[in-house]
Amino acid sequence: MAVTTHIAQSTLTRAIHHFDGTRDAARPMDRVEAVRRAGEMFRQDMLTHPTVQFYKAMELVRVPYPSKFAYLNAYAGLAPFVHLCNKLFVIQFHTADGIKTLLASPSDWEHQRATPFFAQLDKKAGPLVPVMEALVLRKTNTVLGALANLGIQPEQVDYITYDHLHTQNLTRWLGSPDEPGLFPNAKLLVMKEEWASAHGLIPWQNQWYCPGGIRGIPENRVIQLEGSVFLGDGSVALVRTKGHTEGNHSIVVNTPQGILVTSENGVSLDAYAPAQSRIPGLADYAARTGAEVIINGNTQEYVVDQYISMVQEKAMAGPCFLDPRFPNVMPSSESAGHWLFPGTAPTLRMGEFESGQLISNPALKKAA
To answer: How far is it, in rounded angstroms, from Cα 292 to Cα 74?
Structure first.
């Protein structure tokens, strides 16, 4: 098992203390309000930091995902699935050691089908797998293809991170005893709880983790984070948002379009503003229960914390630059409409997005 790799605090990370103690109250709603206030203060602080050098969200692949999980207890339509769009985020930010390139959610989807949940779907489909793939699997791009389109070489990737490790196969990127990693200089940024959890899963968790997906990764390629941190000049933050998994974190980025917050705690902007949703059942559920968010609940590890974390994400994000009725949240896997799944199209989608200027060879440009 990999152990913590220590990194120079002065060049990469600075601890975030805005949320210290906000989840200590005995009453859950007291925790909600404490986290909300801290999130709003965090947002105001982060807005004083520089904006990122470059940010781009790109579609990789769309897959079916059970609607009963996507909108836990709230969805009232008939479609058994939503169409979930997995994205890659390419982020460049300044540090004292120059511009660094971070990939968020670089899913090696070509080698993740052994994840038990999706393997079971294939088994049920049997000989119809090619037909089902043609209908509902949309292969837009791969991580390597997306990077090539941007002119980024694999050796130019400094860090990779995931809001959580469901379905991920990291060995192709970081290496194993059997093969070298394709990103020879990259290190994984991960919360220590997520890394530990992924090495000792209970049965319903393991249905969502790719077998062997982290096995044998060299320990010097993994940076286990003790808690929330700013990266570099503070234009990027990894904020612990426990809930969807024990070690879940959100990728928070300051852009000219505002603070963008990425995770899979929710699968659409509708999940963060259900009262504004046209998806069957969501607005009614919000009105009946008073719920201000609808969680993505496939494993339900820490559902109270997940609810609180989604409120936290909304507070950190502020109003969406596309429509202020929704928060400025960029889900790492965002629901999209599909003709086979009527009534699941989100009221508003963030989709693909680009901001800032890409530095194609960061090694040639040091931070000011």
So the answer is: 12
